Amino acid sequence: MEYKERSYRSRFSDDGRHWFCVRFLESDLWIGVDSGSYSASMEQEAYAMLVELRRSMDTYLLIDPAYKSALAPYDAGIGAPGILKEMSVVSRKTGIGPMSAVAGAVAKHVADYMEERFGVKEIIVENGGDIYAAVREDMDVAVFAGQSPLSERVGLHIPASAFPLGICTSSGTVGPSMSLGRADAMMVVCRDVLLADSYATAMANRIRTVDDLQPVIDRIINIPDILGALAVKDDRMAICGRFELRLFR
């Protein structure tokens, strides 16, 4: 199952960037930087940064376990690391628990570190289907939707002028992340990757059957922070926003 969930990464492997994987605990990051900026020390330093970030988060969660289990907006305490405070801010916008933004938050913090430490010109950090991308060319992003016949057959075309962006996908049928719905995939694009991650979960929670697709998309249309969205359930999909639909073979 794990191999299948990560097979979509092969779409990125021949795009001219240098790609490497960094893993610690549940975090599994696939990082791509422009080849001109790559150096051999990047992988070790990205790993060390991820370890430090995760340990700071986990240390706080031991003393505030309610944060981790919250299904509604929840404020991090004064002693919480900045990343958890950022997730709390996002949760107040999306209306669900702050851990809904954790994958996007980790991706963004690692990307920020790489940009500051190495001055990379382009970077993509993918964390379990949630992507932070700061690139200089158009990108086609296929949606992974498990057993749906539309999985990796449909996606969004995002022009270079739109980046940096967060492109995040939540599912009630794929992967270990908690979802209250049964969406095969709910892809959301926002300028803020934490918002994209949390909104993807919030909207996926609302999809249990194909009849829920259009009502969810109609709801998304009225959320200014969401620039584009693509929802998949079984053999049906619904789309909205500023980005073009792409079909893949």
Q: Would you mind describing this structure in some detail?
A:
With 249 residues, the protein is of the alpha+beta class. The chain has one domain (2-247): Roll (T-fold). 34% of the residues lie in helices and 26% in strands. The chain has seven helices and eleven strands. The protein has an eight-stranded antiparallel β-sheet, covered by helices on one side. Strand 9 and strand 10 (236-241) form a beta hairpin. Helix 2 packs across helix 5, helix 4 (82-94) crosses helix 6 (193-204) and helix 5 (102-118) runs antiparallel to helix 6 (193-204). The two termini are 22 Å apart. Mean pLDDT is 92; it is low at 1-5.
Describe the structure concisely.
With 249 residues, this protein is an alpha+beta fold. The protein is built from 7 helices and 11 strands.
CATH architecture: Roll
Number of strands: 11
Classify the secondary structure makeup into a structural class: alpha+beta
What's the end-to-end separation, in Å? Answer: 22 Å
The main pleated sheet reads as:
8 strands, antiparallel
CATH homologous superfamily heading: ApbE-like domains
What is the helix tally? 7
Which fold name corresponds to the CATH topology? T-fold
Helix content: 25-40%
Question: Any key phrases for this structure?
Answer:
alpha+beta; 8-stranded antiparallel β-sheet; 3-stranded antiparallel β-sheet; 7 helices; 249 residues
